[in-house]
């Protein structure tokens, strides 16, 4: 069984990549390695970590992390006493409105931002105390697609960043071929990234993050700029690659469909705090109210503002004079809503009940607490 | 379990510093060959300014300039090396910030210092190539002959511009904190003219400044034919101390700036 024992708590091994003798034991993403994620989870669960013998070492462990920017009355608390653990091999979505603290949290985990308080451990390695060992296991695509060299070819980027990440590029050449094949870049391997479409550049960025041997990967808006088909392909491949290689992936995105399709678990941030942390199914099951979808004409912005004040989970989308309204209601709310619309002479074209989705949960949880809900 | 690198069998094996150096130098070589316009442009501009200096100076100063042409060529060669190394390292850091690649170099298991130094070395090698061309053109245009002992020239000028690399790191670090300051810091390269031509023989304390002492030794090597082993040990030691001192100080400034940028949350922001 291919495992990585000795890696997670052996900080000295990572302090010098040349001395990373365990590297040859890393899990390869061979097509038949679908069960290895479970194997590795159980192997890591049996390791002795900071939690003691037999305790599973989380891939990411954040404890009491806080970060404020500025001072005095203008100070902004970007991350407020966040503690969270992410199990090795899981795919976790990080959601939140703009300004919720997602990027600061990710950058703090990666050591790109120094937190005021708290600690971060990656596979038991303290990022601040032994950053080199921690960095042998983590890579990230931050804030869009621009994290590689556009004047190098696709393959050159993958080889370069594999080497920078502490992996001999020759040893992962076949992995690179498969990765590029899966992302539909196999015909572009020798093309300079600058000559690719935006969607392809995005894929190269993700591929370069997966090119080395990092097993904790942070992806910020991985499907930004992709068309529907590319986004769907990317989601499927991301999930597949993560499972095959036993990667721990944290996906920060505004695209609820991506998070719902790819992630095992969702963290929702608002106002610098984590306001929800659960499996996607559990979050959806926990919302037992009905959702009404109303398509109507004659809903003006003033009425929308009133509805937002009076009802929960209001999401509005206006197109060609018709407004699509989603509202979370119980029975009393339903009567009140219809009465309110009638009072304003709104013509209802269509009215349905719909199953709540992640967006509804997100809107409910983040409404009025930082950033702006939709 | 086998710990041998599983080359070709798709098992990731660790890369040592040799692999890292290969990757960094290869990238630099690829960009140099694939996009020669930057390098050619730099050579053309350097030669053009030398032409203005040489022909314009001859019109104004006549024989006086011709008599001192050897010193001017050596000084100009060192200046082009210095400007190349300084702007390459400071602009490179600024560019990495814009490209979003800086974080990935900070987040390397090798640590940022070796990666940054290797990138600096790559820039220095590239600068030697372009400045070598400029030197050849200057010698051809002026019909001047200099002692071209390659080992001595590379060692002395290499150590001289190592101090400038330190200034480049410091400037790059300041650019991390104050993004728009990069263009202003480029003006510092004109100060290198003063350092290259500093009268370090007459004013000994000037030798502790970057370039000044190295410039004097390079003049002796290229004009008088002094070989590296013929220099007094004290002179060579001072050259090394100045090089290491400024490189170390520059890197400390860079590290401080990086740490402050992380504290302020502006590392990589552009």
TrEMBL record, chain B:
Matches recorded under InterPro entries: Nod_factor_ABC_transporter
Species, as recorded: Halobellus salinus
Keywords annotated in UniProt: Membrane, Transmembrane, Transmembrane helix
Top-level lineage group: Archaea
PANTHER family: ABC-TYPE MULTIDRUG TRANSPORT SYSTEM, PERMEASE COMPONENT, NODULATION PROTEIN J
Lineage, highest ranks first: Archaea, Methanobacteriati, Methanobacteriota, Stenosarchaea group, Halobacteria
Bilayer-crossing regions: 35-57, 69-89, 128-146, 152-177, 184-201, 236-254
Name of the molecule in the record: ABC transporter permease
């Amino acid at each position: 069984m291919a495992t990585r024992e000795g890696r997670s708590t052996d900080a000295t091994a990572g302090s010098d990549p040349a001395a990373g003798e365990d590297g040859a034991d890393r899990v390869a993403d061979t097509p038949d390695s679908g069960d290895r994620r479970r194997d590795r989870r159980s192997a890591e669960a049996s390791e002795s970590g900071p939690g003691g013998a037999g305790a599973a070492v989380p891939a990411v462990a954040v404890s009491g992390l806080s970060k404020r920017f500025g001072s005095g009355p203008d100070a902004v608390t970007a991350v407020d006493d966040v503690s969270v653990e992410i199990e090795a091999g899981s795919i976790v979505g990080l959601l939140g409105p703009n300004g919720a603290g997602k990027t600061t949290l990710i950058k703090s985990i990666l050591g790109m931002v120094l937190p005021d308080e708290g600690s971060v451990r990656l596979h038991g390695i303290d990022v601040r105390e032994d950053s080199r060992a921690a960095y042998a296991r983590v890579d990230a695509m931050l804030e869009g697609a621009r994290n590689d060299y556009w004047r190098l070819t696709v393959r050159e980027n993958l080889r370069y960043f594999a080497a920078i990440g502490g992996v001999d590029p020759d040893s992962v050449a076949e992995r690179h071929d498969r990765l590029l094949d899966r992302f539909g870049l196999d015909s572009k391997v020798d093309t300079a990234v600058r000559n690719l479409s935006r969607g392809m550049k995005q894929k190269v960025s993700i591929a370069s993050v997966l090119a080395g041997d990092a097993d904790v990967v942070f992806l910020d808006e991985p499907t930004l700029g992709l068309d529907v088909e590319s986004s769907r392909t990317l989601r499927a491949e991301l999930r597949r690659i993560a499972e095959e290689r036993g990667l721990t992936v944290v996906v920060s995105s505004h695209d609820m469909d991506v998070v719902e399709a790819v992630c095992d678990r969702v963290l929702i941030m608002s106002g610098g705090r984590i306001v929800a942390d659960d499996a996607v199914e559990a979050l959806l099951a926990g919302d037992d109210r009905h959702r009404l979808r109303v398509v109507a004409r004659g809903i003006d912005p003033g009425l929308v503002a009133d509805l937002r004040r009076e009802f929960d989970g209001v999401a509005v989308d206006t197109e060609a004079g018709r407004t699509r309204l989603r509202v979370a209601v119980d029975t009393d709310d339903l009567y009140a809503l219809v009465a309110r619309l009638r009072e304003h002479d709104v013509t209802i074209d269509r009215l349905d009940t719909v199953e709540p989705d992640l967006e509804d949960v997100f809107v409910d949880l983040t409404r009025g607490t930082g950033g702006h809900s939709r | 379990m086998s710990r041998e690198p599983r080359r070709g069998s798709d098992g990731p094996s660790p890369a040592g510093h040799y692999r890292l150096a290969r990757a960094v130098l290869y990238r630099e070589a690829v960009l140099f060959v694939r996009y020669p316009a930057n390098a050619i442009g730099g050579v053309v501009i350097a030669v053009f300014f030398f032409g203005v200096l040489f022909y314009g100076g001859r019109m104004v100063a006549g024989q006086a300039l011709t008599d001192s042409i050897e010193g001017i060529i050596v000084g100009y060669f060192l200046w082009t090396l210095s400007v190349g190394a300084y702007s390459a390292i400071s602009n490179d850091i600024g560019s990495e910030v814009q490209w979003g690649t800086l974080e990935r170099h900070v987040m390397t298991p090798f640590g940022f210092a070796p990666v940054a130094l290797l990138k600096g070395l790559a820039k220095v090698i590239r600068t030697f190539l372009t400045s070598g061309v400029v030197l050849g053109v200057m010698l051809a245009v002026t019909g001047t002959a200099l002692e071209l002992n390659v080992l001595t020239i590379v060692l002395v000028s290499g150590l001289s511009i190592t101090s400038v690399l330190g200034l480049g790191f410091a400037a790059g670090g300041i650019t991390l904190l104050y993004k728009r300051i990069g263009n202003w810091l480029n003006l510092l390269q004109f100060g290198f003219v003063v350092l290259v031509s500093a009268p370090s023989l007459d004013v000994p304390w000037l030798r502790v400044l970057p370039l000044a002492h190295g410039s004097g030794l390079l003049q002796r090597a290229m004009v008088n034919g002094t070989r590296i082993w013929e220099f007094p040990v004290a002179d060579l030691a001072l050259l090394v101390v100045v090089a290491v001192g400024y490189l170390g100080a520059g890197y400390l400034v860079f590290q401080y700036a990086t740490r402050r940028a992380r504290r302020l949350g502006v590392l990589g922001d552009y």
